[in-house]
Amino acid sequence: MTSKRLGKRTVAFASPPSVISFSNIGGKMESRGPLADYFDELDQDSFFGEKTWEKGESAMQKRVLNRALQKAGMAPSDLDYIFAGDLLNQCIGSSFGLREFGVPFLGLYGACSTMGESLAMAAMAIDGGFATLAAAMTSSHFCTAERQYRMPVPYGNQRTPTAQWTATASGCCILGAQGDGPYITHATCGKIVDLGISDVNNMGAAMAPAAHDTLLAFFQDTNTSPSDFDLVVTGDLGALGHEILCDLMAQDGVKMGKNYKDCGLMLYDLKQQDMHAGGSGCGCSASVLNGYLLRGMREKRWKRILFAPTGALLSPTSSFQGESIPGISHAICISNTK
Amino acid sequence: MTSKRLGKRTVAFASPPSVISFSNIGGKMESRGPLADYFDELDQDSFFGEKTWEKGESAMQKRVLNRALQKAGMAPSDLDYIFAGDLLNQCIGSSFGLREFGVPFLGLYGACSTMGESLAMAAMAIDGGFATLAAAMTSSHFCTAERQYRMPVPYGNQRTPTAQWTATASGCCILGAQGDGPYITHATCGKIVDLGISDVNNMGAAMAPAAHDTLLAFFQDTNTSPSDFDLVVTGDLGALGHEILCDLMAQDGVKMGKNYKDCGLMLYDLKQQDMHAGGSGCGCSASVLNGYLLRGMREKRWKRILFAPTGALLSPTSSFQGESIPGISHAICISNTK
Known about the structure:
The structure is a homodimer of 338-residue chains.
Chain A: E1 5-6, E2 10-12, E3 18-26, H1 28-31, E4 41-42, H2 53-71, E5 81-86, H3 92-98, E6 105-107, H4 114-127, E7 133-140, H5 142-149, E8 165-166, E9 169-176, E10 183-188, H6 203-222, E11 231-234, H7 238-251, E12 260-262, H8 263-266, E13 279-280, H9 282-298, E14 304-308, E15 310-312, H10 316-320, E16 327-329, E17 331-335
Parallel strand pairs in A: 3-4, 5-6, 5-7, 8-13, 11-12, 11-14
Antiparallel strand pairs in A: 1-2, 2-10, 3-9, 7-9, 10-17, 14-17, 15-16
Helix pairs in contact in A: 2-3, 6-7
């Protein structure tokens, strides 16, 4: 019964699920970044019309799912499952944002790797014969993340050079058993990797070893290398994590090359927008995938990409208790051909 | 590709995954309850040998997975995936408890429904051909939950009559493609249901409508009724939620009957242990399933049970912001025959 396993850790889908529809939404900073043209919606109001930032984050998930459904001419009742999660305590961005849709809901927690985890789970549900249509989605919000992980925004917390900027954004991808692609052809799910980094202002360094572990497994299992892909894209390693990942892969004889990008380095103009090490948050990779990347694939700019968002599985409590930061990364291969 | 769908929302596994091994652990209160004999391990130290309660909760997950593996004569490397989550912010009970195992990890957030969600996901991964062996697990801890959701334990918070007691417990179930049962034959995943209950000390009332929605869908899809099962067991509705669920089902003409039990009413002696409305927490249903229930099935005391844990998808933040409490429930049919 494990005919769909390839190598040690990779799943090769027998009937690769197709991207049916995708949508993204961003806030003020995202509207000033280089990918602004690739957003379905950009809202200058950080509350997204709600009274609190948390409710605003939920509103983003609601809007982005509604738009993805609308673009596909679908009703919520067409979906068999929604796979979603976010960074907020108890994932309230998802549970409150999605409660009105009446769709069976599978809550995930993968920190900033959630877009990858949700795609892997949705693709398994479809290829396994348990669903015809499923949505994979996540969100993050700068102001909800700042006050939960660091300090409330009005405090004016000073940021270190290695700090990243949590994207105020959400992305949703609807996968289906039938469709014209792009297709989810492979998924390599991540192990928890913890090399002992404990600086909460240097997430890139904490998460890079997880991306290294997962990407190495993917390349070995599929007998490929980065040059076989038009793009290899990590989620939010940022400037430092990008460099560390290249170094770690080089130690194993794998050259990441110039096609290796990071969503955290794509979403903002780091210097002009004073973004320090780059963007981060579940919404960073989710909005880049469900806009710039999938649109580029539909427009045949790229044939095959490897999307590997990374997450840091810490909490303020674990850090206060002296713990290091465990990382995780899930790699998803997306191709225009089955 | 949806041949495994039954009715509107239920999955009928083509090759029902088998329970390979299961294990549970509990704390002091659990050791004084009526199910004490059905625990693999009971620790009188609420820290489980660690310096903080959060680390203690992680230690429970670590121990319970180790024991489940040991009972099956397996190594961590035999597992293709671990599906796990817990109540702690950012699910640190799972990420820190499981980081050393080196097994691909899929983090879930389903609040107290997590044992059901993890079983559904693990069974789909196996029946879908993506895994041979997968662990499904979760935990909760009275002291970590109290200080996160309510007040730190030393404060001596007064509890209302409808309040429930978060179990200090963890449970793990290893499922496999081959095995002698019991088997996971069906799963009905839950929708988010919110009827507007906002009393955080009455979770049973908030979650009962979700159990009602999922169980009704399951019975309709499978053309069964509660009397077709030796046991129908909800997770932690407690005394009030148990009664509400019976009422809601009766309104739809479904008599829950005397075989309907709730793990929150089984784990403790409510009166003698001053438990108010009963037990709760992810670990409540997880430890009852992975001890009393699965052992009873192996001993042929029951042939077929329906396990439907329920979760409340709130956070302290959502309640402070005036939100009601969304509930969710996932139903898993477990049978001694395929």
